Amino acid sequence: MIVRPRVVFRLLGIYRVLVRHDLEEIALATHMLGPVRYLGLLSPSTWSWLKHEPKPLGQRIRQALEDLGPIFVKFGQALSTRPDILPREIATELAKLQDRVPPFPGSESMRIVEEAYGRSATEVFADFDQQPLASASIAQVHAATLHDGSEVVVKVLRPEVHTTIERDLEVLHVIARLAQTYWGPSRRFRPTEVVEEYDKTITDELDLLREAANAAQLRRNFADGRTLYVPEVHWDYCRKNVMVMERISGIPVSDIEQLRANNVDFSVLAERGVEIFFTQVFVHNFFHADMHPGNIFVNASNPADPRYISVDFGIVGTLTPRDQHYLAGNLLAFFKRDYHRVASLHIESGWVPESTRVDEFESAIRTVSEPIFNKPLSEISFGHFLVRLFQVARRFDMPVQPQLVLLQKTLLNIEGLGRQLYPELDLWKTAKPFLENWMTDQASGREIFGRLRETWPELGESLQQVPHWAVTTLQQAAEGRLRVQIETPGLDEIRSEIKESSRQRNLHIAGGSLIGSGALLLGLAVGPPWLGWLILAAGPATWAYALLTRVTKPGG
């Protein structure tokens, strides 16, 4: 593994932070710094003066990530959504991570904006507030006014953010590979897969044109604005590192006191959150995957009919129709306690290997599911059910599936938010009719006809070719030119082994024949003696060649 100098220096800095939080055993166990660890610099006693009083492991990890900077904070946030691979106490502590990043100077934002547009900020905006409204690890947001009077927010990527993130992603990949290689306990967490998944997510967030496109799609999906309002994107002002959107006003969803002061109906608000989630996942198949409280506001102008307002669209998720179907079926089967159906659906969907025994998988699912049903339905967590389900599936070699991870994260966020607003929320009461209606619609004649109509152009074109294919096949059969090729797994390997055995046998026969011929020439004194000895020596040489090729052949 080739590690660049900048990564080595960063690793040394990371080690210093880990020691300060009494976590150096992680670096040592993962061989994080390779040969450097033997220089004596990495002895725990060397850095003992940096340590604080011992704290719970989860808290120490959280504080270390905060000290390591933005990319590690966001990585910790991503990990907090993976209680299927992390101990619960660590995942819970990581959920406390906040994107508290000092803002960069407003003058720097002005410079980035002017560079993006190729003209001065005063030409683009009638007013641009250099004091940021909010600052995060990747970008910060400024209030501005367009020349037509529209009030907007301008999102600007942090300077040098690409370089910083590229370096720290490289560091994370190195640490993950070392952990997977040298630290046995880490293997069940699949660190390389987790980092690869995170790499894709964070890289997508660096393209603000992609985020603007996500926002525009969500706005179209909720065009009526009845339950969710998405701000309008001002496309003429969007670039890869600058995005301009309509400025919205609302009450932060986490400000319970302010919502209560406005007499908001919390039961309606909580149920609408669930409705929005299931609509995004099963109707639109395009869901906002970063719906934490900091990204959600409430329009309380009509307290009896509150509406959500959403911002920050850097992370979205989609499911294949197959995943949609199997997910809905899993949830319905779970609440019917049909564990055999849940197990079968996992295998049919390809989420676990085909070789998985249904009865064993069913038993494992029953073991983790039954305790849940000891609680009232209003206390049963869909999100934690999915976490438990995926934990079981991982034991049966279910690979990391980013679309399901994003879904799980979003459901945990929505469910937690709903219960915070309205503790009596019965998620199943809202979800069950939705899922049942969706499953019924999928099997309805209207839905089937609709799917057929969508695929008809391709299907019609293929059907036009059927007569030609049939005539060609019959012609080939009549002329004896029809050949049917059957592919059997492992057949090529068997053929290769037979061919190799035949070649070896021929070499052994040739070697024996040469020895016999040489001995015959010498015995009968036919021809010069040197010729007999040469042929006689060629026999063992042929056998040696046969033996050598067999030994050096892969698997030989």
What does this structure look like?
The chain is α+β, with helices and mostly antiparallel strands. Among the domains are: 5-99 and 165-203, no CATH class; 319-446, no CATH class; 501-552. It contains 21 helices and eleven strands. The longest helix is centred in the last third of the chain and has 34 residues, at 445-478. Residues 35-42 have low confidence and may be disordered.
Features:
556 residues; 21 helices; 11 strands
How does the SSE layout of this entry go?
Elements: H1 5-20, H2 24-29, H3 57-68, H4 70-80, H5 88-94, H6 106-117, H7 121-124, E1 125-128, E2 134-135, E3 139-146, E4 151-157, H8 161-182, H9 191-205, H10 208-221, E5 228-229, E6 242-246, E7 251-252, H11 256-261, H12 266-284, E8 287-288, E9 296-299, E10 307-310, E11 316-317, H13 321-335, H14 339-349, H15 358-369, H16 382-395, H17 402-421, H18 427-443, H19 445-478, H20 491-524, H21 529-552
Parallel strand pairs: 5-10
Antiparallel strand pairs: 1-3, 2-3, 3-4, 4-6, 7-9, 8-11, 9-10
Poorly predicted regions: 35-42
**Rounded radius of gyration (Å):** 33 Å
Number of strands: 11
Structural class: alpha+beta
Helicity, as a percent range: 55-70%
Tell me the fraction of residues in β-strands, as a range: 5-15%
Instruction: Name the overall outline.
Output: globular
Mean pLDDT: 77
Query: What is the number of helical segments per DSSP (H or I, 4+ residues)?
Result: 21
| First-residue to last-residue Cα separation | 30 Å
How is the main sheet built?
Answer: 5 strands, antiparallel
